[in-house]
Amino acid sequence: MQMFGRAQVTHGAQRVAWLFLTAVGAGATIWCTHFVAMLAYRAGVPVRLDPVLTIVSLITAIIGTGIGFGIAAGSRNRLYSVVGGGVVGLAISGMHFTGMAAYRVDGLVEWRIPYVAASVLCSVVFAGAALGVFASPRLGRYRVAMGTGLLVTAIATLHFVAMTALRITPLRLSAAPLEPQQMQALALATALVGLVVIAAGVFAALIDRWTRSDAMDRLHHMAMNDGLTGLPNRINFQSELRRQLELARTCSSQLGVVAIDLNHFKEINDVHGHQAGDEVLLLVAQRMANQLGRHEMVARFGGDEFVALIRFEHRSQLTAFTDRLKTALEAPLALGQYDTRVGASFGVAVYPGDAGDAQTLMNNADLAMYRAKSQRSPAPCYYDAPLDEAIRDRRELANDLRVALDQGELQLHYQVQTSVATHEVTGYEALLRWTHPVRGPIAPSLFIPIAEENGLILPLGEWVLRRACSDAIGWRHEAKVAINVSPVQLAHADLPRLFHQVLLDTGLPPRRLEIELTETAIIADRDRALHVLRQIKAMGIGVALDDFGTGYSSLETLRAFPFDKIKLDRLFVSELENSPQAVAIVRAVLALGKSLAIPVLAEGIETERQLGVLRREGCDEVQGFLLGYPQALAEYGQPGQAEASAGAA
Questions:
Q1: Is 232 exposed, middle or buried (0-12, 13-18, 19+ CB in 10 A)?
Q2: pLDDT > 50? residue 641
């Protein structure tokens, strides 16, 4: 019955193999039962066995039960199981009466038909019930035992009721119809055949069960533990956290979740390679695991992120736990011929004070850890709702920004740039705008840093570049389009290749594209940044230095790279009307631009007086609300129309 159970849950060749083993086991068992019982039968007359029919009876049992079990295994429908069981019952009956035909006696054999019919009916009914019960999921683990018992009942009732139907009238009396030695040898041989077949089936089932059990144990371990460190993984930790929460509620105890992020892991990976990084993870995992006591756990969530758990009664236990982990992580690590230290940032959230459920508790510990990392705190940071809600808000905005980028919810607005002398439009600055579906417009000063923190600035910058170039190619004039480039983008080695590909894809001439970047974008890695800028400028793309005057190395930057434009920061323009010092600074910048043959564009023009001062001092280009607010392309109608409004201004 266990082998038949395996046949039910397998398919193809495996099912055929298990059905074959089931049929051989069942057929041989029925056959042995019959012949051992017949050898014990006292006929009172000479007896002999027909070898051909004896073998035919065994084949009948094996084939018949194989067909019945095959029908039952062919479908999950219980009707198939009952019908298949009925066929098994008929096979038992066929085997019995074929075997009786092989049982030759010196006498008259008489069969009483009612008993014969009753025996067959018992066999069919009990065997059908056996496989029907076996297919019932409601019986759970008892279905194997009940199915086995009913099948044994089918065999036993068939044999004994059928033997009741048999009447033998001796023709020749004999004190020893069959030699005792022959009787014992035949019985022993039959029993041994049956036992060997049964043993083979039992061991096949046991081996299969052991193999499946080992495989399941390995799969369970792989599913619940980290492949590198062997620590519990996220699924395992979440399961244990829910269990510990229930215990904490029951025992009125507290639960602490500690989020851990290694501090210098990226540097180790970059300098010494990923193999060294893996070795570090193994070492710190072993150290933390060695610090665990009762009701404590540590798991790896991936990368260099770990999380620990402790159920405690007194706050001092939580403090001692985090101190142990902190000490273990700050100790020197021996990696081959060199030593290193990693350290970690810790964030702690406590049940029930900080959260009442597992997910919120983990999130709050995570927020506290991010605060510890941003503040470079040497001590663990405990969850603080007012402080950490700001971090949660930024993370939610980061997720929303990712969705907005994927679903095309971002927009480009364009602000006109004009010549002071001729009032002609010289270009448009592309400004990224995001209107949140719930929060409304989000300022670029808020979402751009979030994009940089969360690895979104590169896809965001590519989207802006493609969109701006696609829009500009449809304008009726040859004005430039200017886009801002962040320090993160400038640090990316593939930036020149991206510009080249976008210009090829959109068909925009390089002379109509201009990039704007601040000094901070350059001084982060000056040599590399200047190398990238030279590659971009070599394509014919203009390069403008934005927010000029607010940095600390402006003159050196201008000396090192031939910019196509200087953009004077709005801070100086806003004070032109009231500050002689601001006028003097603007005059000096304009003189510097003329001496270097670099045009100067003043930002933030909001009044006619500001524009008048810049015109008098010889400024080349201007940009600001006085000349036009940033607008979506559709609001401009045809961008060429902006020339008229700019000229009027």
A1: buried
A2: no
